[in-house]
From TrEMBL, chain A:
Domain of life: Bacteria
Lineage: Bacteria, Bacillati, Bacillota, Clostridia, Lachnospirales
Domain ABC transporter: 2-246
Organism: Catenibacillus scindens
Keyword Nucleotide-binding: yes
Name recorded for this polypeptide: Sodium transport system ATP-binding protein
UniProtKB/TrEMBL annotation, chain B:
Residue stretches spanning the membrane: 21-44, 195-217, 238-263, 283-308, 320-338, 366-388
Assigned keywords, A-Z: Membrane, Transmembrane, Transmembrane helix
Domain ABC-2 type transporter transmembrane as annotated: residue spans: 20-384
Gene3D superfamilies linked to this entry: abc type-2 transporter like domain
Full protein name: Sodium transport system permease protein
């Protein structure tokens, strides 16, 4: 079980960043007092516009960023104190994490397997399975720099799953993928769920969230605007699809602000 | 430790599986260096040849005919122009300054009479010579003329005056030649002790610079570092794996470079063999110091690389460091041997350069060696510790 309690993350803004964001504030509150729990074996979606704080939340979950305040625990492990143990349990994919362009998918998969302490036969078995599932086998010996965006994304996904993680945290996993591969990724996540794995995905694609997620949290300006199953969110807003529900929540929250 | 080994292997593979990297790291510097020295040797040689084959342009006034046979050697390689008192001496001097005339020689009127009629206490005739020491041709003409006047003309005139030159010579020194006894190993050691410590100190750094920024800042910038940071491997394993791989590579590139230098430079420069015999303990000390210095550089570059946000920023910070390293190496090259204070052996970079020089001349004491090695190791450990701290900081790793 994943428990996020009162998570707040504040970034300090450098002079350059202040200019970029056209603000005079020296800091930016990316996530603001966010609390939620994700149960084992469910697919949980974070839905929000760009810059809403989804990626920051997930990076905190993945132990890459430390919360400014609040706490996150994963199966009872604190992400700050037990970060190495947490990293052993999870898989984290975000578009800012890239595969080394100078190596082949084949080598990178083995490298990350070894880095996670797996023995060679297990790595090879996982490689065969995942490379075939995501259609990587054909280009597994090409250097990453020669691959297309979609191919790279497939490799990133496969590599992130090398250790058969209990918890999968994917930040916009279908970004850059063609419709067939995107479907394959979503199917894979469903398959993992059936095997009792926990999946957290962030997305701004409504249809994806609608079809995939058991529960959805809508995040607006770093704050939790709503949380529940698709049906609950629609009922709260008296709408009949997620996109309409999202706009309703967005309208309410932005108006309040 | 497991992670360290895996990261180390990946870093090594990155270089050794990439022909471009291999070439730029190990082969190109050697080609450039040998080419540069070969060119320098060729230019120096052709310059000497050019000067030697040049016919000096000489202006002469009042030269007595009797003495011209004595100066045959000189005038055979000169184009002589005779002038008289009506000529404009100042404008001729101006020509010397500009390098158009190599030498002006003015004998006093009735030079021979003055020489022949000399009596004790009368004035000694003076030959005036004008030349330009900053012009190679003029300088060479002056050297040759001087040799002819001193070595041929004066002894001949003296002999005419007093008959037996032995009267004046009293004794000679090494008239048969062959007085020089050189310990070639020590002489070679002195050239090496000046050159090699300097080269080792800067070459190790040069090998580290580009690779170090690429493997740390480059990986941060490309987003590939994060892929390692989400694995359960300890950050210290990632850092040390990278630093050790870099140390090996900068050692290797420096060793290849130095071997090439010792073999190729004498040939390129056209000088004799510079081969030198080392005792096993010397070799061990040199290797230990090189490894420690390489590790120190790697930690230094690594620290800059981890603090820098972009490759451009890293390169900007590292250039001044490179200049400091070059200066530290140069100080030891220029300083005289012996008599260094103990504190000098704990100044990073400088101490290793100093100690290496003293190994070649067999002057390094055990205490100074231990101080040098120990302090370099301590500095490196401190720097590595800071890098590991930075690797744990989201600010430096993710610009957050």
């Amino acid at each position: 079980m994943i428990e996020i309690k009162n998570l707040t993350k504040i970034y300090k803004l450098s002079k350059k960043q202040q200019k970029e964001h056209k603000t005079k504030d020296t800091q930016k509150k990316a996530v603001d007092d966010l609390s939620l729990t994700v149960d084992r074996g469910e697919i949980f979606g974070l839905l929000g516009t760009n810059g809403a704080g989804k990626t920051t939340t997930l990076r905190c979950l993945a132990t890459l960023l430390k919360p400014t305040s609040g706490s996150i625990s994963i199966d009872g492990l604190d992400v700050c104190r037990d970060s190495e143990k947490v990293r052993a349990k999870i898989s984290f994919l975000t578009n800012e994490i890239k595969m080394d362009p100078y190596f082949t998918p084949d080598y990178l998969f083995s490298f990350f397997g070894r880095l996670r302490g797996m023995d060679n036969s297990l790595v090879e078995a996982r490689k065969k399975e995942l490379f075939e599932y995501f259609g990587i086998t054909d280009f597994k010996n090409k250097k990453v720099e020669e691959l297309s965006t979609g191919m790279k994304q497939k490799v990133s996904i496969a590599v992130s799953l090398v250790h058969d993680p209990e918890i999968i945290i994917f930040d916009e996993p279908t970004n850059g993928l063609d419709i067939i591969t995107a479907r394959a990724v979503l199917d894979y996540l469903r398959m993992e769920k059936e095997q009792g794995k926990t999946v957290i995905v962030s997305t701004h694609v409504m249809s994806e969230a609608q079809k995939l997620c058991d529960r959805i949290a809508i995040i607006i300006d770093g704050r939790l605007a709503a949380m529940g199953t698709l049906e609950e969110l629609e009922a709260q807003t008296q709408t009949s699809d997620l996109e309409d529900a999202f706009f309703e929540f967005y309208r309410q929250n932005v108006k309040e602000a | 430790m497991r992670g360290l080994k895996v990261v180390f292997n990946k870093e090594m593979r990155r270089v050794f599986r990439e022909p471009k990297m291999l070439f730029s790291l190990f082969i190109l510097p050697v080609i450039l260096m040998i080419g540069m020295y070969a060119l320098m040797g060729y230019l120096a040689q052709s310059m000497t040849q050019d000067i030697e084959s040049h016919k000096s342009i000489v202006y002469v006034e009042n030269m007595p005919e009797e003495i011209s046979p004595y100066l045959d050697d000189f005038f055979s390689q000169a184009e002589m122009t005779v002038f008289d008192a009506s000529a404009d001496l100042d404008s001729m001097k101006e020509q010397v300054a500009q390098g158009n005339i190599d030498l002006i020689m003015i004998f006093p009127e009735n030079f021979m009479e003055q020489v022949e009629n000399y009596t004790e206490g009368s004035a000694v005739p003076d030959i005036q010579v004008f030349y330009n020491p900053s012009e190679d041709y003029s300088n060479e003409a002056w050297t040759r003329l001087n040799a002819a006047l001193d070595g041929v003309l004066r002894p001949s005139l003296l002999e005419e005056r007093i008959g037996d030159l032995g009267m004046l010579t009293i004794f000679t020194v090494n008239a048969q030649g062959g007085g020089e006894i050189i310990d070639e190993q020590r002489a070679a050691g002195q050239i090496l002790s000046m050159l090699l410590p300097y080269l080792i100190t800067i070459l190790l750094f040069a090998g580290t610079m580009s690779l170090g920024t690429d493997t740390i800042t480059g990986e941060k910038e490309r987003g590939t570092m994060a892929s390692m940071l989400v694995t359960p491997v300890r950050r210290s394993d990632i850092v040390l794996g990278k630093l050790l791989a870099l140390t090996c590579m900068s050692m290797l590139s420096a060793v290849i470079y130095i071997v090439a230098l010792v073999i190729a430079m004498p040939q390129a420069l056209g000088t004799g063999n510079m081969a030198i015999g080392f005792t096993p303990s010397q070799v061990i000390m040199i290797i230990i110091l090189m490894i420690l210095l390489a590790f120190f550089y790697v930690s230094l570059v690594g620290l800059v690389a981890v603090l820098a946000k972009t490759m451009k920023e890293a390169t900007t910070y590292i250039s001044p460091l490179y200049i400091i390293v070059i200066v530290a190496g140069m100080i030891t090259m220029l300083s005289t041997s012996g008599g260094h204070d103990t504190w000098e052996y704990v100044v990073p970079v400088y101490n290793v350069s100093l100690a290496l020089g003293e190994i070649f001349t067999r002057e390094l004491t055990v205490i100074h060696f231990v101080l040098t090695a120990g302090s370099t190791l301590v500095f490196s450990a401190i720097l590595s510790g800071i890098i590991i701290k930075a690797f744990n900081s989201e600010h430096f790793m993710f610009n957050a």
